[in-house]
Amino acid sequence: MKVMKFGGTSVGTPERMKHVASLIAESNEPTFVVLSAMSGTTNSLVEIANYLYKKNPEGANEIINSLEKQYIQHVEELLFNKEAKEKMLDFLHEEFDYLHSFTKDLFTSFEEKSIVAQGEILSTNMMVSYMQEQGIDAILLSALDFMRTDKNAEPDPQYIKEKLANVMNEHQGHQVYVTQGFICRNAYGEVDNLLRGGSDYTASLIGAALPAEEIQIWTDIDGMHNNDPRIVDNTEAIRQLNFEEAAELAYFGAKILHPTCVQPAKFAGIPVRLKNTMNPKAEGTIIDNVLVRGKIKAVAAKDNITAIKIKSSRMLLATGFLRKIFEIFESYQTPIDMIATSEVGVSMSIDNDSHLNDIVNELKQYGTVTVDSDMCIVCVVGDLDWSNLGFETLALDAMKNIPVRMISYGGSNYNISFLIRKADKKRALQNLSDVLFRSV
User: Fold this and answer.
1) How far is CA 434 from the centre of its chain?
2) Which site among 12, 18, 177, 419 is 20 to 30 Å from 76 CA-CA?
């Protein structure tokens, strides 16, 4: 069995839903399908929740009514069988009555998660209705019956595996199983969501739990590229990545994949394939545990970086200095991306500046603090083990005309990172492509 996940743009219109159904039907093996909400729906549901937080039920009802009209039109375009259409319209009526019910009672974050979950519930019900109308043996399984997080808000893989096995045993023999991405229950049985990675995370967790032969992530892009195609000319799709390389690229700016979502597949040894719904015959990118030695794969960039430097003569030969510094960042739940140290100073970069002023104020008790904003991390990914002579030199040569604030190398065998000004990002990415890929 394989797992196929389709994102919001892939199921964003009735026509695209039909196209996705045809892709699923082409499979000659049982298939487990994970769907996101139709593009734009989650934003509307969040807007409804915002109105309710602000005690404006009129505003919420207006968005709900508008969304209901939109979905009624979708059903009219998607389904042709009268009985199936009436059944789906009745379901929509119940769904939107449910959304209206939140405008009459006390509203909290728990209710917000229930509202946001309706996007995936709507898309999966519509898809299964259409597939059944087309004669495809499809069944809908509720993710709320087997997807759960633990008390730390992390997925509970053992629970997921056991509950999913029970659900599959109850519904044996179908060609297509469809469920919702993103949504789950928490350790207390309340409706919740997976946050990081969303529907991709769901697909990876399900793939590991089944276990599947392959997990396919379908988007509107032909796999991962060796550089940002929006900025750099003549980029190419990468045909194969190691899980570690994919995680580095995802963390440092490759938006096609969230770095967390591939972990369950990695540990289960299940390959993840990135495919393009608009170009299904394209090979895409396969991510697995194979490491191709002696090759640089790609370049990625991460924007909105802030660099913080603290200089102190008290740091010289002092024990515990770095611990005190890191504890300040931990207290404000602000992760550090890069770090460089010397005998009298330490520089760090962060991508979340919501607590920047507080962090800087506390750091000042240990030394002189300077801050550089509007920075960018450029990351070169591949087999960058220190024994591969000359690879770091190639990357440095490409950056010889770019002012570099920090360099990180050796913390991982898979990347070398440069902290630069955001204004230099385009030139840096183009130079790296010219040196690393076109000269080969």
Assistant:
1) 29
2) 177
